[in-house]
């Protein structure tokens, strides 16, 4: 597909992922005009004022965002002199966004299909779908039908008179975006694009064949488990359940009457998604809540801890499976699942997911991009990385870019004025 790559060599773009447990900011500099980039700044902070991906205390969230952004800027200033961070691509959590399906048809202006025809059809669909309390996040052409012939992947240059386009649209809750934009504005940042979190996670971790042949990415965060279905190079669906690693931690805290901090430590040190026979004979010390003396520790078997974890993970994957069934997309055709997010680091999670989803499951490989520090190359940062890929590679799926065709200003300029006028 076309629509020009929005950034030229040397230009800079930042990303912001406001998660339930951490807020991450990446800064990338383009190394060529074709979308190649290197990471020049990374900042991440424990989240504050965010629950299940949604802002619940704007003042706390603003402070945590500022800390994360300043850390990234400080690192970037070593590479780029006098660089003030401005343009950011924002991750939109699946808990405040929805997938919709539409079709649009246009009469061709000329004998062959041009970019203008595609934009007209997509813009028409956007006008029809626009609602006052929602903001459009993605407008993704899924299938082109030219004079009744389905299955066309790239219609440009093909001859025909009438074109139908099947479209996958993602929109998001306006009030959530408004709250985030208040935080970014106070930090002097301009949001230039939005991207659904699981979509971004997929773009940074799926290989091209998986995106083409069909795969599902499941991003296992602290407060949300989101998923996106990919096929034929496109994202067909995005959804999520408001359950994540924090729920596992609080189940452990409740089940073992331990503090949240101890429960988190036990989870990461001894946790697993599946128990083995030997776990019944392995004992773990659990500090009693509020008790300083280690003599008061209770002893439990490791299998008790694992049973608590397994129950919550099973419930989560079952909800994901149900969500996929309810979505109406043919997820059965996707034989592969890729797990991302911090909670996917739990040992045994791959086998458990495989058992419940009846698909081939793999955990995401560490992210490999020039300049990215090892500490931030794990699956918890897949969304941050994917936001850059989205912005540089898929301008034709950005609703504002589609709506403002014919406008001679650059994409970032158009986005900025759109968000300023409308939010
Ligand atoms: N080694 C590990 N084993 C198990 N769980 C882990 C491990 N490391 C991190 N986690 C869990 O991963 C979660 C954080 O993941 P992540 O950073 O992807 O979440 P987030 O992006 O902040 O949240 P969300 O996307 O849900 O808003 C926490 O619940 C944490 O306990
Ligand atoms: Mg996340």
Please describe what this structure looks like.
This protein has 423 residues and is an alpha+beta fold. Among the domains are: 77 residues, Dna Ligase, domain 1 (2-Layer Sandwich); 64 residues, Alpha-Beta Complex (Actin, Chain A, domain 4). 35% of the residues lie in helices and 29% in strands. It is built from twelve helices and 18 strands. The strands form five sheets. It has a five-stranded mixed beta sheet with strand order 3-2-1-6-11, with helices on both faces. Strand 1 and strand 2 form a beta hairpin. Helix 1 packs across helix 3 and helix 8 packs across helix 9. The protein is globular. Adenosine-5'-triphosphate binds next to helix 6 and helix 7. Magnesium ion binds next to loops.
Can you give keywords for this protein?
423 residues; alpha+beta; Dna Ligase, domain 1; Actin, Chain A, domain 4; 5-stranded mixed sheet; 29% strand; binds adenosine-5'-triphosphate; binds magnesium ion
